[in-house]
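Researcher: I'm comparing several assemblies side by side, and this is the next one on my list. It has 629 residues spread over two chains. Same procedure as the others: predict the full complex and return the structure.
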Amino acid sequence: MEKIGKYKEWKPDLWRVPSACGLSGFINRDGGLVSGEVIIDSMRVMNERGNGLGGGFAGYGIYPEYADYYAIHIMFESQEGKHACEKLLEDNVVLEKMEEIPKETSERITDPPILWRYFCKPRVEKILECGKSEDDFIVDLVMSINTSVPGSFVFSSGKNMGVFKAVGFAEDVGEFYRLGDYRGHAWIGHTRFPTNTPGWWGGAHPFNILDWSVVHNGEISSYGTNKRYLEMFGYKCTLLTDTEVMAYLFDLLIRKHRLPIEIACAVMAAPFWKDMDSAGEEERRLYESLRAVYGGALVNGPFAVIVGFSRGIIGLNDRIKLRPLVAAEKDEYLYISSEEAAIREICPKPDRVWAPRAGKPVIGMLKDGV
Amino acid sequence: MDGVRQASRSEEEVKVAELDARGIHYKELNEKIRSLIESGYEEIVLNGVNGQRYIGDGLVHNVRIVINGVPGNDLGAFMDGPRIVVNDNAQDGVGNTMNSGVIVVRGHAGDVIGYGMRSGKIFIRDDVGYRTGIHMKSYREQVPVIVVGGRAGDFLGEYMAGGIIVVLGLSSDSKDLVGHYTGTGMHGGVIYLAEEIDESKLGSEVRIFQADKTDIERLNALLAEFSDLTGLDVSKVDPRSFVKLLPVSHRPYGNMYVY
């Protein structure tokens, strides 16, 4: 398409860069599979929101032939790190398949780390030994690799899904990873304009643990509180970017503590005390209890996030909507994005377009039985 | 020029240029618009617009720009004179700090509409997002106006120093006419609402009053213009039942940081 060339000719470093991160995501609630090209097309419209220091995607339903295996994507800074990491993997999991993640050579994505993926299951004896669930075992393994194996970072660890991220503009990252070769029922994408933290490969979005992936526009000013809170549950923040806590919070609150999605969102984007006071008695008690129990999981600061997981996608804003978020529906599709144009690029005539309210999640789930 | 179809509406002798904006980066698009204006075109129709930013920004000409598609952020920022019509929805930052002219959106618009606006008019047919009309200001005959056909999100008219905002609550399935923190820090201008709202939604710097005779005349004129430009039927709207929000202090923070 001519458009790609046009955008690429523009040199952002010659200008003031009026940027912010850009998000887009969609789900086919019937489970129908869509090429990764579609999310690239959506993200390309928001090129302006990024500055080339991070782009990434997560696709769901993309590995049907290995649907029962954890798909572990890892970036390595050196062959030594890779060997050390693979040793650790072999001790803990049964590897069904391991391979380099397919990619294009690209002039615009430079100096990539070594990128491999491992389809695996935890070793039965290890599970029996630790007495944990397979999911918890994998979380521990990811934390262990990220904290103790030099230059090795797990950036995707769910089943039948995968995260693909790099330093670059989102559309270039998508082409680098050949996302057009994958088909998924849900996709989320991100283009990054890093503000407070380095623009490195591990710091690109989405941030992932198990099948939870988060793309984020904003700044989490409660990062320190959230990080310490998560450490009590064994999560270790190693990726030098605030958004990492959101992925672990969703895993903790929804998978481990089995909170309904709406309640988990009311923990992270908690209602203000004045709104609790004006709510009914039952609601007030609920929100007060959530504040008391989950104060350390309250996420403060401006944010718009899209979260992907095996059954759906969630869009959520901070409590006073300090970052943009738009949603749209067309038949079985739900779309969420930073800009309406990014939705209209891939869905020209939605049935409905609306602006989600601050702190109120937009949720798109696979239909029952899909 | 490449990709430009030329025409003229003979009855008015208006020179019209039509431009296919599909896939064109905003910088190139805005350069084309400027060069068409310099070539004497008085109306520019942009087709296939999707997400291009800064359309019409800083233009000081007597020109009409028709946008078919969804324009990107900061439509008509710093604009001083042109008339823009969007035959679709618009995004964030419409009319940012605009100085004069008219922007009509025949759909909804995003957040921060008319930020720091100094004069001119913005007519949004449907809903607007958060922070509409914040920091608007007026000076003598320079009085900015925003009319919203649907509802408005939180922080409407926050820190408003002058000008007029009208919210009609039509064409919207939501019951709440405005969100929370309406008029917080407001110290000039007026916000008209088609119905009474709960005081809990207001910032502490504003109070609710009934619209008086002067208000009703002003509203009738604005409603007629709004309906004409957006195509929305306002016949069910009765300005006599409107309320207005006025600031209770000209300098609400006059004593802040002074002790």
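Model: For your comparison table: Chain B has two domains: 1-94, 107-259.
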